[in-house]
Amino acid sequence: MAEKADPTDLRAVFAANLYRLRVERGLTQQELAEKANVGRIYVWQLEHCIYSASLKIIQRLAEALDVEPSELLRPSRGRTKPSD
Protein backbone atom coordinates (compact mmCIF):
# COMPACT_ATOMS: atom_id res chain seq x y z
CA MET A 1 0.00 0.00 0.00
CA ALA A 2 1.30 3.47 -0.87
CA GLU A 3 2.00 6.08 1.78
CA LYS A 4 1.95 9.87 1.54
CA ALA A 5 5.38 11.48 1.28
CA ASP A 6 6.41 13.66 4.22
CA PRO A 7 6.44 17.20 2.71
CA THR A 8 9.31 18.19 5.02
CA ASP A 9 11.57 15.34 3.84
CA LEU A 10 12.93 16.39 0.45
CA ARG A 11 14.33 12.91 -0.22
CA ALA A 12 10.87 11.39 0.37
CA VAL A 13 9.26 14.05 -1.84
CA PHE A 14 11.78 13.28 -4.60
CA ALA A 15 11.17 9.53 -4.25
CA ALA A 16 7.39 9.95 -4.42
CA ASN A 17 7.59 12.25 -7.44
CA LEU A 18 10.04 9.99 -9.24
CA TYR A 19 7.75 7.00 -8.74
CA ARG A 20 4.59 8.91 -9.67
CA LEU A 21 6.05 10.42 -12.84
CA ARG A 22 7.55 7.10 -13.95
CA VAL A 23 4.23 5.28 -13.49
CA GLU A 24 2.24 8.10 -15.14
CA ARG A 25 4.45 7.72 -18.21
CA GLY A 26 4.03 3.95 -18.27
CA LEU A 27 7.74 3.33 -17.79
CA THR A 28 9.28 0.42 -15.95
CA GLN A 29 12.24 1.06 -13.70
CA GLN A 30 14.42 -0.56 -16.38
CA GLU A 31 13.09 1.70 -19.13
CA LEU A 32 13.61 4.83 -17.05
CA ALA A 33 17.09 3.67 -16.06
CA GLU A 34 18.05 3.18 -19.71
CA LYS A 35 16.67 6.59 -20.72
CA ALA A 36 18.56 8.30 -17.86
CA ASN A 37 21.71 6.19 -18.25
CA VAL A 38 21.59 4.86 -14.68
CA GLY A 39 21.10 1.39 -13.26
CA ARG A 40 17.66 -0.14 -12.62
CA ILE A 41 18.59 -1.00 -9.04
CA TYR A 42 19.61 2.63 -8.52
CA VAL A 43 16.17 3.81 -9.69
CA TRP A 44 14.56 1.38 -7.22
CA GLN A 45 16.85 2.65 -4.44
CA LEU A 46 15.95 6.27 -5.22
CA GLU A 47 12.22 5.46 -5.21
CA HIS A 48 12.60 3.80 -1.81
CA CYS A 49 14.72 6.58 -0.21
CA ILE A 50 17.76 4.36 0.14
CA TYR A 51 20.02 6.81 -1.71
CA SER A 52 19.86 10.51 -2.51
CA ALA A 53 20.34 11.68 -6.08
CA SER A 54 22.96 14.21 -7.11
CA LEU A 55 21.92 17.26 -9.11
CA LYS A 56 23.37 15.62 -12.22
CA ILE A 57 21.20 12.53 -11.71
CA ILE A 58 18.11 14.66 -10.98
CA GLN A 59 18.71 16.44 -14.29
CA ARG A 60 19.11 13.14 -16.19
CA LEU A 61 15.97 11.68 -14.65
CA ALA A 62 13.99 14.87 -15.35
CA GLU A 63 15.08 14.79 -18.99
CA ALA A 64 14.14 11.11 -19.25
CA LEU A 65 10.71 11.90 -17.77
CA ASP A 66 10.33 15.06 -19.89
CA VAL A 67 9.82 17.36 -16.89
CA GLU A 68 11.70 20.24 -15.32
CA PRO A 69 14.05 19.11 -12.51
CA SER A 70 12.02 21.20 -10.07
CA GLU A 71 9.01 18.91 -10.67
CA LEU A 72 10.93 16.10 -8.99
CA LEU A 73 11.51 18.23 -5.90
CA ARG A 74 8.15 19.97 -5.56
CA PRO A 75 6.08 18.90 -2.54
CA SER A 76 2.43 18.37 -3.25
CA ARG A 77 -0.56 16.94 -1.44
CA GLY A 78 -1.79 13.46 -2.30
CA ARG A 79 1.37 12.22 -3.94
CA THR A 80 2.39 8.76 -2.91
CA LYS A 81 5.52 6.71 -2.69
CA PRO A 82 5.92 3.03 -3.42
CA SER A 83 5.65 0.45 -0.69
CA ASP A 84 7.72 -2.72 -0.48
Please describe what this structure looks like.
This protein is mainly alpha-helical and 84 residues long. It contains 5 helices and 2 strands, in the order βαααααβ. It has a single domain (3-76), classed as lambda repressor-like DNA-binding domains (434 Repressor (Amino-terminal Domain)), CATH 1.10.260. The chain has helices at residues 10-24, 29-36, 40-47, 55-65, 69-73, and strands spanning 3-4, 80-81. The longest helix has 15 residues, at 10-24. The radius of gyration is 11 Å and the shape is globular. It starts with a strand and ends with a strand.
CATH fourth-tier homologous superfamily? lambda repressor-like DNA-binding domains
Secondary-structure-derived class: mainly alpha
CATH architecture: Orthogonal Bundle
Q: Report the mean per-residue pLDDT as an integer.
A: 89
Report the radius of gyration as a whole number of Å. Answer: 11 Å
Number of helices: 5
Share of residues in strands:
under 5%
Distance between termini?
8 Å
Which strands sit side by side, in order, in the main sheet?
Answer: 1-2
Short description:
The chain has five helices and two strands. With 84 residues, it is mostly helical.
Please render the helix and strand layout as text.
Blueprint: E1 3-4, H1 10-24, H2 29-36, H3 40-47, H4 55-65, H5 69-73, E2 80-81
Antiparallel strand pairs: 1-2
Feature tags:
two-stranded antiparallel ribbon; mainly alpha; 434 Repressor (Amino-terminal Domain); 5% strand
